[in-house]
Design brief:
Layout lengths: L6 H14 L12 H8 L3 H13 L3 E2 L7 E2 L7 E7 L8 H15 L5 E7 L18 E5 L4 H9 L4 E4 L9 E5 L1 H15 L4 E5 L9 H15 L9 E3 L4 H13 L6 E4 L2 H13 L9 E3 L5 H5 L6 E3 L2 H18 L6 E4 L2 E3 L6
Parallel strand pairs: 3-4, 3-5, 5-6, 6-7, 7-13, 8-9, 8-10, 10-11
Antiparallel strand pairs: 1-2, 12-14
Helix pairs in contact: 1-3, 2-3, 4-11, 6-7, 8-9
Length: about 350
Amino acid sequence: MITSISKTEQLKSLILKDIRSEVYRPGDSLPSIRDLCRRYGVSKHTVSQALSNINELGIIDLIHGKTTRIAANPFRKHIELIYVSNTPIEQQEFWSEFYRGIVDEFQQNQEFKFAVRSVSEYGSLGAMENIDVANTAGALVLGSTNPKKMDFLRRNEIPFIMVYDRVNDENASFVTADLRGALIDMVKLFRRRGCLRTAYIGAFGKHTDQGINIDKMKYFKEALTIAGMTADESLFRDAEHTMRGGYEVLKAMLSEGLRPDGLFVASDIIAAGAYRAMYEFGLKPGVDIAVGGCDNLQIGNFLIPSLTTIELCRYRQGRLAARRIIERINDHTENEIREVLPAEIIIRESLN
């Protein structure tokens, strides 16, 4: 007999428990609504609501007027897309391309369902604490390297793949782009241009302490060394990942009398602000200071001069990550996944 106020949730938990313990197996019919009412001492409305909630999870096939059956693959159909931003993912230019790839892959595998869960990168777990752990088959993590979030997924035995970003952890799976190779190619362009003092603006200090932004700066320094160029620490500046961040940091550098002849910015968004700072100091981007960016965002095409940048294959990364999490769930494998797609340089007017 169920006596608690939240009868629907309790009944849902009891039925799910029976399905997990294989009282009901895949393809089996559930008892009729009348029989469930009698067994648990609840109303027809409570039973109908509980079954509807379970049906939304893809665990049963509920067809009104027909027998309700256990799905062929219960508990293996729901995937969380954990996304760090308050902006809807389809409206965020950088992440929307990853998302488009993920959606297209799931459309080819319609036995899987997914939901986007927006979370904050710092502080408590927040919305992640609301994940229905028992009914989540896996997760894709976009834009987070927070160890608390990774620990939560591991603790609850939810397999996950990081998309684009990654952590230096041998137990973490990821799909990313080869930024190291791309930055070596980018620095070759600066060298060919004859740049002797190449600056770097990106998030690597107080704005972030881990993940791909740190790697990006490290790879750029390595690329300078490989090219026989000097990495002048005074020209490496930490910046907020915004246009204002790029503007303020380059303005401060130029105000200090530090004038680079080359500039790499960790995002095309930062480049737009840096362009503004150059113009205010009477400098022409692409002429007085050669400029390279990263991400291949639309804004790079509309800057004057147009911005040389790094294409990260964001759509392919998203689609591949979705395919790999599906394969991992279907194959019951615990092998770590590490896929690195080649990034490529898009040469435009600012550095050619």
